Each structure stands twice: as C-alpha cells, then as structure tokens.
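Run log, item B.
One chain of 78 residues. Sequence copied directly from the ordering sheet:
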Amino acid sequence: MMYNRFLHIAFILFGCYKLIFSEEKEDALIYFGIAPAFDPFDTKQAWNEKPVWQKAILLLEVTTAMTLIVLSLINFFK
C-alpha cells in the first residue's frame, strides 16, 4: 500500500512537471493516465465505500487525463 502512494504521487508530480516545463505536453498525459492505477488510498475498500473527497481526487485526475487527450487530438489535427 505504501508503494502505491509513493508511485501515485510520483506520477502526478512528474505529470505536472511535464505539463508546466516541457515542450511536449503530450508526455504529461501518460503520467496523469497511469497515476490512478496506483490507488493511494485503501485498495481493499470498494469504490462505493470510499469517502467523497477520495473519489473527487481520483475523478479529477482521470478528468485531467481525458482533457489532455482531447487537447492532444485537437493539436494533432490542426
């Protein structure tokens, strides 16, 4: 469980770094997309039992990844 938390935070931080400082913004998509796979909260707890704030954090990360996908596709087809 502890390594999940470490990996999750590492992927989010590296995604933020790529999004802010890198010229290749599409790389940030990879890190934001992988981060939710490493659930930093109790992995034995079902989704319906998670507190609202934990669901909100995970959904915000997935929404960020989906937004980056759309922006990458728009930029690709320009």
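Observations after the first pass:
- The two ends are 43 Å apart (CA to CA).
- The mean pLDDT is 90.
Flagged for discussion on Thursday.
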